[in-house]
Design goal:
The chain is 20% helix and 34% strand. With 123 residues, the protein is an alpha+beta fold. The longest helix has 17 residues. The strands form 2 sheets. A 6-stranded mixed beta sheet has the order 4-3-5-6-7-8. A two-stranded antiparallel sheet has the order 1-2. It has one domain. It contains 2 helices and 8 strands; from the N terminus they run ββββββββαα. The two termini are 26 Å apart. Bound molecules: zinc ion. Zinc ion (ZN) binds next to loops.
Length: 123
């Protein structure tokens, strides 16, 4: 299972933006590779990735500032999607394919776990 718990995030590069769907203010952590969902409407607000410039892992998924999943690569170049909300998944693809594979899993997972995530967000 996950080696971190929900909400385990340092807050060193926290920024604020208005959600592009519901216009509510979202606070989230900037990473080299990340996707952030809005904690209010749960839509996909923004993604950034160093594709073409550097490694794409670790890749973080968060709902606002709540970290909900991470993609990482092991020593044998296998990518994994790890989350406190579901069993760790070995991904079929590597590099950008691992990210798009995870995007699809997360779009479903975020809806399935909405109640738990809302509880962990403590809005
Ligand atoms: Zn929103």
């Amino acid at each position: 299972m996950a080696t971190y718990s929900a909400g385990d995030i340092k807050g060193n590069y926290m920024i604020k933006e208005k959600c592009r769907f519901c216009s509510k203010e979202i606070k989230f952590e900037l990473h080299a590779n990340f996707t952030v969902y809005c904690p209010f409407c749960f839509k996909h607000h923004r993604s950034e990735c160093e594709y073409g410039f550097g490694p794409v892992t670790p890749f973080y998924f968060s709902v606002g500032k709540l970290l909900i999943a991470k993609i990482y690569e092991d020593n044998s170049n296998t990518c994994f999607l790890e989350s406190p909300y579901f069993e760790k998944k070995a991904l079929r693809g590597v590099y950008l394919d691992a990210v798009s594979e995870s995007d699809k899993i997360m779009d479903i997972m975020i809806i399935q776990n909405k109640e738990k995530i809302l509880k962990d967000l403590k809005l």
